[in-house]
Amino acid sequence: MKRKIRNIILFTLVFSLISGQVLYSFAESGVTLVDDSGYEEVDKVDLEFDDGFEEPEYTVKELSHGGSSSFMEINSDLVLQENTLIGEGVVLKGNLDLNGFKLMIEGDLLQAGGSLRINGGELYVKGDYRIESTSGGSVSANLYMTNDNDYVKVDGNFVVNSSNNNTYLTAGTMEIKGDFIQKGSAINNFRASENHKVILSGERPQRVRFGTPGNSKFNQLEIRNTSEEGVVFESRFATSGLVTNGRKIKAVGIEGVDLKLVGDVTIEGDDLYPVCWTRS
What we know:
A twelve-stranded mixed β-sheet has the order 3-2-9-12-15-18-20-22-24-26-28-30, with no helix packed on it. An eleven-stranded mixed β-sheet has the order 6-7-10-13-16-19-21-23-25-27-29, with no helix packed on it. It is built from no helices and 30 strands. By secondary structure, the protein is mainly beta.
């Protein structure tokens, strides 16, 4: 008998992208499933993992934050053992290590604590990736990208509001299709360096805003936005490399640290302050 979930989705499946097998599935007590005969109450089911997959502490709760109707909460340490898809949003409070594997999250990723180590793997977030609390406040959390193979793709907005200084963005690529917003009490909570690269590739106008430009910075920034308006920088920003691919950007100023330009760069803006090239 075919069933579908009624109203809000609190039924979660996680399965291997390679094998297609379910790693675990459970429904929160009280969720109502609908079939042709009416309604049926489903009790909570214990988590069952395939061999080699360590069982962390998972709970599912409904939150008002972000675009997803339900979130899986990861409270303990977790190291991926294979490519994994999570069908809803995730609240991360523990330490997550991708361990060279792929993780796809169909909803938002809210990192409210702990650390996320890409570690040679790939992270795909269909919604927003926010390093902040559910209320938008500052949190003690870090993103680690230190391997050239590290890849993070965010289809929504990326927001970092960490109270920790983060200098662990030294390699890999982060691709963002929504807005980029840096804020928080730690002035260096997004300080990329060495071989780290950020690509802005949205199909709609993208906003970039730094709360502490110069302290927090891009290392290599590439613009691939295809919208007519392009990328709008609402604050000054710092970068060591800039590639625009002939695409439009609007900015109030750039602080370059040993800045290298690839190709011509055109900066538009009604209130454009003098562009400042600084050297370390």
